[in-house]
Amino acid sequence: MKKVVALGEVLLRLSTKDHLKFSQAIEMNADYGGSELNVLTGLSNFGMKSEMITRLPANDIAETALMQMRKYNVGTNFIAKGGDRLGLYFLEKGASVRGSKIIYDRAYSSFAHIEKGMIDWKAAFKDATWFHWSGITPGVSQGAADVCMEAIEVASEMGLTISTDFNYRANLWNYGKTPGEVMEKMVAKCQVILAGDYASKQYFDIDPEGATEKELQQSLCEKLKERFPSSEKIIITNRKNISAMHNTWSAVLYDGKNLLESESYNITDIVDRIGAGDSFMGALIYGLNYYEDQKALDFAVAASCLKHTIYGDANLVSKEDVEDLMGGNVSGRVKR
Amino acid sequence: MKKVVALGEVLLRLSTKDHLKFSQAIEMNADYGGSELNVLTGLSNFGMKSEMITRLPANDIAETALMQMRKYNVGTNFIAKGGDRLGLYFLEKGASVRGSKIIYDRAYSSFAHIEKGMIDWKAAFKDATWFHWSGITPGVSQGAADVCMEAIEVASEMGLTISTDFNYRANLWNYGKTPGEVMEKMVAKCQVILAGDYASKQYFDIDPEGATEKELQQSLCEKLKERFPSSEKIIITNRKNISAMHNTWSAVLYDGKNLLESESYNITDIVDRIGAGDSFMGALIYGLNYYEDQKALDFAVAASCLKHTIYGDANLVSKEDVEDLMGGNVSGRVKR
Amino acid sequence: MKKVVALGEVLLRLSTKDHLKFSQAIEMNADYGGSELNVLTGLSNFGMKSEMITRLPANDIAETALMQMRKYNVGTNFIAKGGDRLGLYFLEKGASVRGSKIIYDRAYSSFAHIEKGMIDWKAAFKDATWFHWSGITPGVSQGAADVCMEAIEVASEMGLTISTDFNYRANLWNYGKTPGEVMEKMVAKCQVILAGDYASKQYFDIDPEGATEKELQQSLCEKLKERFPSSEKIIITNRKNISAMHNTWSAVLYDGKNLLESESYNITDIVDRIGAGDSFMGALIYGLNYYEDQKALDFAVAASCLKHTIYGDANLVSKEDVEDLMGGNVSGRVKR
Amino acid sequence: MKKVVALGEVLLRLSTKDHLKFSQAIEMNADYGGSELNVLTGLSNFGMKSEMITRLPANDIAETALMQMRKYNVGTNFIAKGGDRLGLYFLEKGASVRGSKIIYDRAYSSFAHIEKGMIDWKAAFKDATWFHWSGITPGVSQGAADVCMEAIEVASEMGLTISTDFNYRANLWNYGKTPGEVMEKMVAKCQVILAGDYASKQYFDIDPEGATEKELQQSLCEKLKERFPSSEKIIITNRKNISAMHNTWSAVLYDGKNLLESESYNITDIVDRIGAGDSFMGALIYGLNYYEDQKALDFAVAASCLKHTIYGDANLVSKEDVEDLMGGNVSGRVKR
Amino acid sequence: MKKVVALGEVLLRLSTKDHLKFSQAIEMNADYGGSELNVLTGLSNFGMKSEMITRLPANDIAETALMQMRKYNVGTNFIAKGGDRLGLYFLEKGASVRGSKIIYDRAYSSFAHIEKGMIDWKAAFKDATWFHWSGITPGVSQGAADVCMEAIEVASEMGLTISTDFNYRANLWNYGKTPGEVMEKMVAKCQVILAGDYASKQYFDIDPEGATEKELQQSLCEKLKERFPSSEKIIITNRKNISAMHNTWSAVLYDGKNLLESESYNITDIVDRIGAGDSFMGALIYGLNYYEDQKALDFAVAASCLKHTIYGDANLVSKEDVEDLMGGNVSGRVKR
Amino acid sequence: MKKVVALGEVLLRLSTKDHLKFSQAIEMNADYGGSELNVLTGLSNFGMKSEMITRLPANDIAETALMQMRKYNVGTNFIAKGGDRLGLYFLEKGASVRGSKIIYDRAYSSFAHIEKGMIDWKAAFKDATWFHWSGITPGVSQGAADVCMEAIEVASEMGLTISTDFNYRANLWNYGKTPGEVMEKMVAKCQVILAGDYASKQYFDIDPEGATEKELQQSLCEKLKERFPSSEKIIITNRKNISAMHNTWSAVLYDGKNLLESESYNITDIVDRIGAGDSFMGALIYGLNYYEDQKALDFAVAASCLKHTIYGDANLVSKEDVEDLMGGNVSGRVKR
């Protein structure tokens, strides 16, 4: 089994039930997620091995996060312990014309205080073939950025494929560096990039050109390829928000020459769209490891389409579920 | 801060969960509402001051209703105490092609036994600029009608703007008077009327004429204006029921000359439509106090559109939420 | 009141809440159902008398199933007691593009070990005018098939109308007989057949012919009528799955000459579609007893349309609810 | 099977969960009970036939009450329909040193407006051997008292045994009669009396004399026997409140000569004590029908002891459960 | 109505349900508390006016905390806004021999970053007669200690009575000062001290002397009185832990001469003991304002005894509830 | 880390909430347990390695059981896959004088159909030092008994310590063998025996002799030691049932010479006593590996005492929690 390693923060997620407003809620659901963990949870369900790298405080809340990782087959062997608190976020689930709201409370977390040398990257990467990180990680703190760069360098040396999800978050990047100066050299060592036009503008001041959406996507991919020549696959997902519970969803993959396009799905009655992008990334990593590009793209879109029907941050569907949807069963027939 | 006073009955609402039938429910959600209270709760969220006038029994259930009012910043300083019981209603939440069912159990309530002289209207209206009542209040009992007329007269004398929502309820008006003879002189003193064709027919035997919906609305407004010359704004909301969880929603405002029209919203995945009309009224009062007419109308429609996504009788969205929707964000994007 | 008797297995249903995956659920809803019981529960709500024939173990779980039957006015006077266990099934409620999953755990149940002579059919059929069974029953075990044949013979002798729902389940029929050899002589004695193209193929190797859906339906009905000359009404329901929570639903009835067609309903925001076919059958039996064919068909389609909005296996709507929908109220208006 | 008929009001019970105060509760449990119904539900579980006589409004809440009766095997064949509302009560479950609170909202109920002639007592009593009523019934309204007297007279004529539970409620008896003048002639026709010293004082101004508790009980029984010579068994239960969740519980039975005494139980960790007295009465009726007096008394005390462990108004334990406790198993061993 | 002002931190409390371990919980209850807020909530229920001084971030979680304060009649007119986050704590409810666990996550909160000058103390104290603070507040941060001292000085100048609860928390006091050097001059200006032997040792290195518990209490009070001559009442509560759900509870009050003793309560089946000390303090402040010392002490003990039966941080019982318990009703009788 | 291997059946447990009767429950909690799994879960929490051997069907319910094992650090590397169903049991939680009820539904399970050769015992025992089984396993079926004997033989050959818990279940042993003939040769190879007088009588017809409880325990141990000379430690737990929620709990350990005695704990307010014996066994295995006998016994008693406060089958407390209780903290103080 191929093994994927990821670096990122793990957060406690506290979400209201039944679309209640925060002010109405006297109880909240508690789960654990985070962009990179969501990626790993998703691909572990498809049968890959995974190893989550993060830093957690020594308390029972963090211990519960660890239990959830083990439950879903995510490796926890190289996690650093220390610091004060687990970051968390509050989620008010929207409905219809009312969007969901997220309140982050992740400052001063154990992960924000991670430092170079805390992780034994050589050991963590042993037997691994892939390293994944997202733009959230270096946005958290100088320490997190340092550790991310450290990981990228070791991974690069050891010959792992490196993937990134741009994942720009405006409320991060508060430690005195601009995203651009940090991200540039990190992305430069990646082979697989999950990009986006807004993030590309924020990080690298790239403006795609074109009249149609496809032209804009093609242009963005070409400009990114030019800027980051080591990139082999550049992927862009495309969400249209019709309401909080009705979206369309598709993606394109640029292999340096061609722009492959996926099917576009119409997703109504959305249960939980948090982590849909991460589920795409997880399924894409799986796909790029076991399928040719077009099928990898289709697999990733179908898998993340299904994520919208799963409560929580992480995608819990199986490979068979995804293949069923790819095979055209969008109808939600009862499986007996 | 401008202050709005309203008179009406407060009811305990007992609703089934997860679309269960009454016969399946072994637990019910408990909340407190009522047309005029819902109006005040909504506008308090936008930042106006409010004062709810009603009559409550001296027991812990009524005390809990008071706590909810305070929680949502609704004034409770002039509420009369006495009588036997808090009226209540049972709500079976429908779904899809099955409509919701309401069973009222409000007879013999403390409010139904309210009498003239129980409320110190002069004190209640001090510092207030607006008085609101709905057609439910005089429909409850002779006493409630008397107190409503008493309030209208004092408000009128003291120069408050008076608004009414016709709100015709066929299962009220059981105390020996016809709605028409009671409502006529009350509406005659109002400046703002939230009307409807069915209620206008029941109350005043008014039949609008016209070939198109807009013509019918224009006609109804003109006939009402003619009948009630003191009315300055006549408003009609327009709901189309596609299913129990999918409606369209818009409104028009007649200022004596022009019929202003709002945007029409397509509302799917409705969480709770009870109180949507009240949330419209609350937002309209807010809008008419702070905006010109067209924006007031647009604000009221957008606010009440959002109410459909909020559990409970009352609208709990903020001015920012409404402005966001008015600004075109109907897509339910996640706000981070 | 006319009385309908049915034979079938009663199952405990354990379903996840809020669209959770099995792996996320730490609690499950518990209810009791089964195709034939669902039929009876539905028609009891419309005011017919019913009597459920099954075999239950002597434990508190089965006792609770009995209580549910009594609650919903289903007769329990002729149920055999004995055997080891109540069959059960696990239901993972899907959403959107993810279909629901059912895991059956019904082998070795008390009903599977039913044997001829355990039921006093003469007594059970006294005062009854109708007997109903579905293809699930003879698929369970040789004993169940024997008892079903026994019932059909006595019912036939005693002049009851006999109805069947083909209800082919691929995971049954494990006791060494092919469906065809068992079903042939059972269906031969039925006057009312709820058929389906897939089941007709599996049971009787019948292939309808035609270019349009209507031609295919007509063809299937004619071939079934030819094969089973005693059949007086052949009915086919028609579901289109747009997503797990959005279906269309209609039916046709063939009276030996004409193919009557029902309205087609668009059902969004489905709450629970398990048992929808059974609710159709129940309402159809009611309709065929009290209405002419077209109205019976329309009643059955409207009733089962409403079932999609009801949690649980059984249809709990009233005749008034169905008539309201038949009268064109598809809009889910609030009933006060 | 012997059949017991009872007359009384059925109430919706709305209770807070997890010992929450009313002001904290956003949901309440909904069940149906009432003193006489609780008696019947209890004895139905032991295997007697029962028939509940009451008056219910024609709405879905009352329909749900009926379903609960059927579920627990209580007959509903002679219930009158009509009137406005089902009476209800709110229950705030106490804990430890905090007692439970009940807020009644039963005025103006359908049952309060029952009148003579609404019940066909001859039919209801056919095949019955026992009629039960409690002091709550005549306390509700003049109509309820009239119907209760009517029932007692017919029962007496038809030779049924008549039992009463004094059940004095200070917040009833508001219709202009004193309890004494109403109760006297009703109790005079009873053979079995569940009395109490406080109620005996309120109803009949009887003061027991004696130095010890036993002497007081003996004295009360003798005075009641003297006052009501037709009484054959007089029973007194004895509860000591140590905390809201810890009581002791015993009873005595006077047969006109001897004062039989039961075991005294120590009941900790009480789940729900509402209806414990009713469960005693139900088990006593069962016991007096099938056992000699001492065993009947012991059975009644043990059964009602178990009621304290059952959520809701009614006792749901089986005869085997009671016999197990009577046999000395007070230890709550796991039954596998 | 007399008005009490308090300064302290408000925390979100996230607690597991039904005694689950953190690792089992997929949902948590959410409430808002904090030592000083709990004091105010308790005394507001008895009918005093109150004003809570704290600092809150500008987000919907803090807004919900504000709503809870208003609901329970706690004044919120002088609360500072700003900073990053609301402090929070996780509570794992123990049972029997397993104690509850609290995990604090309050570092870096808005309140921890409060600074002198942020609160208009003169305005806040207008019309007030009492100021309360606890040892938690100066333990939080230098800023909190500065603001607390600032408040004490203004209160002292304006002639308010000042009370303190020692409330030593070992996991606070991390900002470079020892508790002793900070507390000394603060306590020196207090008239009412809720002390404890452990806290007195930690803060002031005071060791009581004596052979019996009463002698030790007397000694501690005398030593405190000597150290803090301005103190007029020194109070010590006395909890004995028999299990997580069974405690005894009493208190003594030293008025400079005599040691008054309260009744000792035996509290079984505890629902929630968090905040019991705060509820004592709140009731004591009420008592000292309206009663003589012995009754004030008894009232405070009885009130806080009842707190053990109330879910959440704050005491929600009424004066009547307390008086009922003081009157000897420890038995938890049902109040109808 | 030392590794313990166990063989046994894994069951789905469906339990009612809040002490409801089965007939009241519309939802049940779902967890996974089984005697041997409970033993491993408990000792994994203390930091030992474990490996669970069982046989599971290939469905999502069994997959969820696997996830729970991983979550709690129980090894799942040698589990056989196949068969039809996961066994299950229903648990009705009792209260006070009402005992809990268990309804087993475990016949025909995947584990019941396990056969010799399905498990690679040599591989499973690699690196392990201990093998545990209970009397439930050979009671399930001939196949389970064969596999258990097979495991014992390999473990014995490979030099592992073998422990057994007699665990006699009267409703097993249905496959044609008497417990005695099967158990004799299995127990003969064990070094550690958790015995009981009832099981010793059922299995081996051993009657202890003595006047006091201690003499009876000593006698039982001596007779067992005589019958099974290879046994090195014989342990007996001692539960006294005061009510369903109040027990006392202690144990003795016989080392071939002396009878060591533990402290006796008084456990009130029990949350869940299912699995307490298993938690004792798990903690005993841990203790015997790391402590001398007396401390091992004390550790096991304290650990299992804490189990009574934990919902579910398995003990989830840490070594620190146990040591805290052993250190005398029986009072359930709040740990901050």
UniProtKB/TrEMBL annotation, chains A, B, C, D, E, F:
The keyword Transferase applies. Residues 1-314 form the Carbohydrate kinase PfkB domain. GO terms for molecular function: kinase activity. Keywords: Kinase, Transferase. The keyword Transferase applies. InterPro entries: Carb_kinase_PfkB-like, PfkB_dom, Ribokinase-like. Belongs to the carbohydrate kinase PfkB family. This is Sugar kinase, ribokinase. It comes from Galbibacter orientalis DSM 19592.
